[in-house]
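EI: anyone free to look at a 89-residue chain?
SC: sure, send it
EI:
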Amino acid sequence: MSRTADGIAGNTKDVTDDVKAFGRDVLKLAGSIGAEAKSRADDIGDSARDQTQAAYANVKAQVSGNPAMALGAAVGVGILVGFLLKGRH
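SC: here you go
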C-alpha cells in the first residue's frame, strides 16, 4: 500500500475507535441518568405514600372524634354531586 492509503487506513481506525469509545461513554451516562431518575422517582413515591397515610390518619381521627359532622358533610357532598351530575335536564 502507499503511504497515503496507510495514513487513511490509520485515520479510519482512529476514528472508529473514537466513535466506539464515545458510544461506551454515552451508555455509561445514560445508565447513570436512569439510576438517578429511578432514585428520585422512588423518593417521590415514598413521600406521596407517607403524605397519603398521614392524611388518612387525620381524616380517620376527625371522623372518629365527630361522626355526626362527618355524616353531615358526606350527605352534603353527595347532594352537591347529585345536582352537578344531574345537569339541566
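EI: Helices lie at 3-65, 67-86.
SC: 👍
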